[in-house]
Structure formats: structure tokens, C-alpha cells
Amino acid sequence: MHHVSLNLGDLLIPLLRGTFRCEKTDSVDSWDWACLSSEVAWKAHGDLVAAAGTCLPASFGCFPRNPAEKINSGYKAWEYQYYIFGLLPGLLWSLWDPIYHRHFCKLVSGVRTALMLVIPVKKRRVAHTHLLEYVHEYELLYYQRRIDRMHFVRQSIHALVHLIPEQKRVGPGALHSQWTIENYIGNLTREIGSDKEPYANLAERAARRASINVLKAMFPSLAGDEEHVPRGSIDLGNGYALLRASDRVARRIPPHEARALISYLVRQGVDAAGWTPAVWKWARLYLPSGQIARTLWKEGEREHASQAVRRARMVKVRQLRDGSFAEVQYFFRLTLPHDKICTLAMLRKFAPPDQAILTETLGVLTVCQQEAELAREVVEAKELVAVVGMVPLVERAGGAEGEERPLRHFVVEKLSIDNSWIGRGEPADLDDESEDEGGQQL
Prior knowledge:
Blueprint: H1 2-17, H2 39-52, H3 67-70, H4 77-91, H5 98-114, H6 121-143, H7 155-170, H8 178-191, H9 198-218, E1 234-237, E2 240-246, E3 251-252, H10 255-267, E4 278-279, E5 281-286, E6 292-293, H11 296-304, E7 314-317, E8 325-336, E9 340-349, H12 355-360, E10 367-368, E11 377-380, E12 384-387, E13 389-392, E14 409-412
Helix pairs in contact: 1-4, 4-5, 5-6, 6-7
Region (Disordered): 423-442
């Protein structure tokens, strides 16, 4: 918790701003890595971080506040984590020299893997290699083995060498981090109903919790979570649930969406000739990851009403023919031949990620451009695997003067998405769609 968030943050921010102590034998002018050294650049960067908050879903927890205003005012470890390992790779891409940016991406790649609850062996090896390279190149790029820059090398840099090997020895850090411990203590404390002999009570409840955990480890069938499905929702199985709001009546859809739906039905072998599509729209989908995917249908209404909305309609899709990310327009259900009911999602796709940037950044920075306004794709709702953030990308300088470039976005995925059990999941009955329209199902 403290190492990868607070300690590394306290090292990287002074580097970017050029505020480290500078000895007489050194010169700040030679610190070409300090791309945020000027107050103008720092404030502009802070504004971009603050604006990105609405692009990050609520399932990500607290979004990073403006560092130019709040970095010295109780900036939380959770904010540092998403600021450094979520937003910085995209926000610094246009500012930093590619050498420094690629070096930083090695740190991000390694730490993102270290934050996972379950780490495949192959990923562990790659992450360890990236962290070793980061530490070695840190000395060459910043410290440069100069005595007057000895204070650049802190314990948090050396600790990166042990980050992955220690996880192999004692398990992923998510299992024993301070977040886990604090949440565990909080859970036990909330169970205490009397202040009489509190420590004996706490010890007894801890022993009971340990016994339950042992039983669940021995018999995994006992470990099923008790899921509360809100009133009016539809359990789709496999951890998916369709949640309100929903239309009261079927409504015709625009021609470009109708074409996408008919194309999907044709691929399924359904004869849709002469059919004019009309569907009941649904607003939300509960995912097995604990996140809730929302829709432009409802979020768009709130945005038009000038309400602050943390967008949760950008999703990662398991199988798309031309990419992996999309914006959900709405969900709906259809009855196919033989009374087969399917739950579908109407999507506006993003183009495939820029492979040049993906390669340059070692897979850390995924940059996509949203397809044409009327481009649509229909997929099964269970093809959605995660809710992601899509943050506008500031392009690097270059190109013809006055040339208008299309807006591109970079992807911010939830760090350790299988780690939402540490009290940071999104409850299924969290309903900001109070304007429910009836919940009629097909």
C-alpha cells in the first residue's frame, strides 16, 4: 500500500516537477526529465487530472483529485495509485521524452501485475524483468551514478527488485496489504454488539472468522457469496444480472441500430426479413467482477442536464471483430425462435488499439479512437467483461500546422479488478436510476 502508492509517488512527483534538492555541483537546467517544472505546465496537468475524474467509473473508488491543488493536502494512497499507474502513462505521453516515458512504463507494467490477486507465472516473469530494468535504468537516466544525486535513490527504488519474488514467497500483496488488514479489522469491529470486554469479544470473533475461512478453503462450495438481486432485476446466470431502469413499452430504434441488430440476427441464423425492430431498453448490467455497466441511454440524460456523471458505459468486450472496447448505448432482450430469450447490448465500438503506441509502451498505454457516430455493433451481454475508463488523449506535437486530428482516448482499467472484495466493489442495488420506467420484460 505505502510502497507502490505513497513512497513511489513521493519520489516521482519531485522528479517530474524538478523540486528535488539540487546540489551546487548540479544544475536543474540539466534535468531534462522534469517536464512539469513550470507552474503553468503543473497547473495544466492538474486540470487534466481533475477533468479525467468523470471518465473513471465509480467502481474505481475515489478518483484522483487535482494534484496541483491537493498533492500536499492529504492525497490518499488510493488516489496516488490511480494517478500514477492509471492516468500518468497517458497524460505524460505528449510531454515526456520517449526515453523517459518508456522507462516509466516498465514501472507501471510491473506494479500493475504486482497488484493482481492472482498472478500467472508468465506475467510474473515479465513483471519482474520490467522492474529490474526500471531500477537499473533509473540509475543511468536520473541518478547517473553521481554523488551529488545520491538522494535521488531511495529505499522505494531498491524495494522494487524484491516486489515480485516476495510475492512468490508470501503471496500477492493484496492478501496482506494494509487495505486488507484495515478492512478486516473494520469488519470485526462492526460485528461487536457490546462494549463489555471488547478485546475478548474481538478475539472470539476473529477465531470464528478464521474457522469459517478454513472451512471455505477445504470445501469451496461453501464459499459462494450471498448475492442480493434487486427488485425488478433479471438474473442472467454466471454472475450477470440485468438491472433497472427499463422501458415500459417497446420502442422502435433508429435505422443504423436496426441494421446492426438485423446483422446480428442473420449471423445467428434468424430470418429477420421485413421486421421493424422495436425493443425494451434496460439501463444497467451487473458483471461478475462486481462492476455495473451503465448506458448512454441514461447517463446521457444526466449529462445533458449538466449533472456530474462518472461514466460507467465504456466497457471491455470479450469478442469484438474489430477491437476490444466499446460504449454501451443500451441493453435489451429478444425472444428468438424456439423461445430462446437472449440479452443483448447495443454498442458503439472503438477502433482497434494503436499498435505502435502499444508496442512503444510495452502494452501499458492503450489508445483507441471511437468509430463513427452511427457505427453500431450488437453482442450478447455476457460478452462484457469489465467497465473501463476512457480518458481523452493529448497528442504529441507534430504534423501539419492547422491539421485537425481526430480525438483519441486512452484506456484506464481497474487496478487488480479481481481485488474488489477489499470493500471496493459496487453493490448491485446501488440505484441512481430512480426514474425507473416499469421494468417490463419480454
